[in-house]
Amino acid sequence: GTYQLTHFMRLVDMLTLAGGFTTGAGESCAINRTGADGQTTRLEIDLRQLLEQGDMVMNVPIEAGDMIVVAKKVERLFFILGDVVKPGDYPMPSPKGIRLSEALSTAGGFNKTANTSKSYWVRIQPDGSRQLTAVDLKKILAGQQEDPLLGNYDLVYVPDSKSKTLGYSF
């Protein structure tokens, strides 16, 4: 919204006046400021540094005409689908990624009818293509194969075993 400056205010004051953050707010904001010469400058503010670490250098004074734009939250997700206890999308716990074994644990592990040796992992490449990698979950969990690091929007699919499903149905 638009707010009138009636007295000296800093960034945190303006953000509070605007009602704080929505759940979709990101970790940064920009202040676009037009000077007397008509030139616009942009100040980038790390909100995490300001609000969590208390860095008051980031709490800049606000001037008449400033436009404050809070970035949207960037969702970092991974997906576990197929014959697992809780298939779905999950938030990435770290910017570095998550190990495949940890991701499976997050999804509650695999069901007893899962075909753990025929699973695969899909990663979207920068050009938009998909890289499909076969993974043997049994070997990974036994420490016989490397536990890969999943990245943002990676998908792991655990198929069901037709023979196990048939066996358990009897």
Q: What does the model show?
A:
The chain has a five-stranded mixed sheet with strand order 7-6-12-9-10, with helices on one face. The protein is built from five helices and twelve strands. Strand 2 and strand 3 (40-46) form a beta hairpin. The protein has helices at 11-17, 47-51, 100-106, 137-141, 162-169, and strands at residues 9-10, 25-34, 40-46, 61-62, 67-72, 77-82, 88-91, 98-99, 119-124, 130-135, 149-150, 155-158. Helices cover 19% and strands 34% of the residues. By secondary structure, the chain is α+β, with helices and mostly antiparallel strands.
How big a fraction of the residues is strand? 25-35%
Q: Mean pLDDT, as a whole number?
A: 89
Q: In this structure, how is the largest beta sheet organized?
A: 5 strands, mixed
Q: Could you state the order of secondary-structure elements as H and E?
A: EHEEHEEEEEHEEHEEH
Cα-atom radius of gyration: 24 Å
Helix tally equals 5
Strands of the biggest beta sheet: in what spatial order? 7-6-12-9-10
Level of helix content?
10-25%
Tell me, what's the shape? Answer: elongated
Low-confidence stretches: none
Overall strand count: 12
Secondary-structure content class: alpha+beta
**How would you describe the oligomerization state of the chains in this entry?**
single chain
Distance between the termini: 64 Å
Task: Please outline what is shown here.
Helices cover 19% and strands 34% of the residues.
